[in-house]
Amino acid sequence: MKVSDILRVKGGTLYTAAPDDTLEQAVATMAEYDIGSLAVMEHGALVGMLTFREIIHTLAKNKGVLGTSTVRKVMDEHPMSCTSDTDLETVRPMMLEKHTRYMPVMDNRMLMGVISFYDVAKAVVESQNFENKMLKAYIRDWPAESEK
Q1: Residue 122 in contact with residue 131, Cβ under 8 Å?
Q2: What does pLDDT average to over the chain?
Q3: Alpha-carbon distance 6 to 92, whole Å?
Q4: Which of 1, 36, 105, 144 is 20 to 30 A away from residue 13, measured at CA?
Q5: Could you tell me where the beta strands, DSSP code E, fall in the chain?
Q6: Residue 94 parent element (H or E)
Q7: pLDDT digits over 55-107, tens only?
Q8: Domain count of the chain?
Q9: What whole-number distance in Å separates Cα of residue 121 and Cα of residue 137?
Q10: How far apart are CA 101 and CA 78, in angstroms?
Q11: Is residue 32 part of a domain?
Q12: Which residues contact 106 (CB under 8 A, 6 or more apart)?
């Protein structure tokens, strides 16, 4: 299974922020759409990712206050990414090793979408469920041995 399969099921909605947006604006967007990340775009290019992890670190550092910080000050400027053609067997260990919950999907310098660890886990479970059904059907239809 490829990352493109996840994007096809997930749909084309992409939530973004600008680097100079305030964290307050970004948090409001994340809360409104019940999402855990925003792709940070500037001049049509991905320049970073803002996730709830960066927001929590900021809140902890500022004693529970977002303050006047901008997205640029706290975003991950070098997010790990993959392509639409990347196999899930490659993505899973990457996300686990780096504790990455959200990964931009790039096609050259074009952002195609963002996949989450949840999206990957869901795809794996659905694939395993399908495989289990096929194996059970195969076993049920197993030809009986002829007696000699």
Answers
A1: no
A2: 90
A3: 13
A4: 1
A5: 16-17, 37-42, 45-51, 102-107, 110-116
A6: helix 88-98
A7: 999 999 999 999 889 999 999 999 999 999 999 999 999 999 999 999 999 99
A8: 1
A9: 24
A10: 14
A11: yes
A12: 46, 81, 82, 83, 112
